[in-house]
């Protein structure tokens, strides 16, 4: 149930952020649902592999390279999902930063531990 709620919040955030960011485009709400699901799957399966392969660079940059990895995940989602477009690396970086920040705010508000 918690996973579905997170998927719904991520979908809403993708739609809202695409509305306010001129470099991010989402065709429909259903596309945003697919984007949220694909982002979740990429974060589960691909991101850990990228983190392991880039561990020396991540350590050298004191973890800032993880922002680049997040942007690459967004660009990969752009390639996989029809109807979702990001205009470049900087927009992907900015989108990933704002999306992660908003997701952490929503997670903090919904978790009652």
Automatic annotation (TrEMBL):
The UniProt record lists the keyword Transmembrane helix: yes
Keywords, ordered alphabetically: Membrane, Transmembrane, Transmembrane helix
TM region(s), chain numbering: 28-46, 53-76, 88-109
Pfam family, one: Phage_holin_4_2
Coiled-coil regions listed in the entry: none
UniProt name for this protein: Phage holin family protein
